[in-house]
Amino acid sequence: xxxxxxxxxxxxxxxxxxxxxxxxxxxxxKHTLIDAExxxxxxxxxxxxxxxxxxSHKSKASIPVENPHLWSCxxxxxxxxxxxxxxxxxxxxxxxxxxxxxxxxxxxxxxxFLNGEPVKLKGVNIHQDxxxxxxxxxxxxxEWRLLQLKKFGCNAYRSSHNPMTPALLDIxxxxxxxxxxENRLTGINKxxxxxxxxxxxxxxxxxxIILWSLFNEEPLQNTEEGARIYRRMRAVVEHLDDSRLITxxxxxxxxxxxxxxxxxxxxxxxxxxxxxxxxxxxxxxxxAENNSAVTTRGCYKSDREKEQVLANYDEEVVPWGQSIRExxxxxxxxxxxxxxxxxxxxxxxxxxxxxxxxxxxxxFGIMDTCGFPKDSFYFNKACFTDKxxxxxxxHWNWKKGETVRVMAVSNCDEVELFLNxxxxxxxxxxxxxxxxxxxxxxxxxxxxxxxxxxxxxxxKTEQRTAGKPYAIVTETNTLDIKNDGQDTVVINVAIKDKxxxxxxxxNNLVHFDxxxxxxxxxxxxxxxxxxxxxxxxxxxxxxxxxxxxVTSKTGAESISVRVWGEGLEESVITLNVVKVAAPVCPVVxxxxxxxxxxxxxxxxxxxx
Length: 608
Known about the structure:
Number of strands: 33
Strand content: 35-45%
Distance between the termini: 59 Å
Helix content: 10-25%
């Protein structure tokens, strides 16, 4: 309910109170809006009602807010609504709801607006999966992954293709990440509508969510039957939340369900979007899935037959896909296209397209399964950010006499390349259409680049030739770890030479010994073809890198981690254990023996 100047807002509150007793009770409510500084920003009292035993009652109220502090990507300001339940004048229950105040709008000509300002959505799709833990990602690791996405300018997240864990939405609220939350099952039977309604009721208070997505690439999407199903599903959503718009993701024409959407989500099909827009100019549009470019971290020459690896020059795409440069060139030139969501932010288990076994993970990610950046990270950063940057690929460990294809990735006007201090030429640059390249005869030492804007050097980078593996160098996302038996610290490992240069060809076996009250939850290295264990406390480096996830034990007092490898200088990390209250959770038996199995007789007759 924000006005044109956004100086007034109204927090709408709907509360369901349940009488847990068997006798009728009369309740009243008080709601207080608390700002981020802990001060009351408004309040209201709501008349309750007499509620029969074991019954419930729903009430509505609102709190007017003058000059609200708006939630945005750059300033994700959060409020809290404290709801107090009184029975016979006595406080019987208190509930806190975190929320934010912001205004969203999609325009069929000019795209997405947040608080009246145009925002191009620079998003990613995520299959929740991480090396060492699969889909069971600890909350601390969820936050670390989102922070990696923000580093290349990502401002939006599509939960493909299922509702997000509440903890992840909390983090998106705090970090200013815009969210398309997606429903899992398409349909209108009782199970389908209950699952859809559960997602809406659970998550509708998160300011980060801007769109509800009802399906992805359903077989009936372009039919009248699909349109009817979509209308029924959106009626469920609108009954529970009328503050957001509704979308879905199509990979065909816009006809059918696509025309029932507030914002039509289009998967790939960049070359057909202009025709779609011309046919339906009144319809807001967004790229729900884009790119499907495929790369292998550390690879600069594709080998599809033997090694099943793909080069990092932003040229390898699947038949339906595009490079980030092609997709972004379209998005930046067409205001009506509200933004893109790249498939995917991280590699994930399964779908090793264009390969099959023995490849075991996808190669779609901007980062690998550990969150280590591929070169596509920098292609996206050059597209998504304005701060001057330049990146060189490949690494600079080759054989004497080899001619190396060197590419600069930058968001600046020009890039100049140097080999051991000697200029190899200065070339114009446009991230989408004119990436400068050089064919360089390899010589040990240093290859570097300077990026220019308006003739002035504004960014630099370099790659150095690495020597033999000498030391293990570790980096953690934090040295603090809670002793709740769940908190997890990310330990990234780089194999470096004596001068501190990462050895891009190193594959040393690295061991992780946890001393004290912790354990290795999982390990990984981002290799899409690795069959090593994800849970043993050791992992080979892949292209010089590997990772371990270390978790505290409940009630931990001290934790340190020794990271070592044969012939390498080791690293020891001492974590600062933060004492917190033990989480409330059910106690389960460590072991339970199952006996007395009854097996059916094996017959050749097939079941009916």
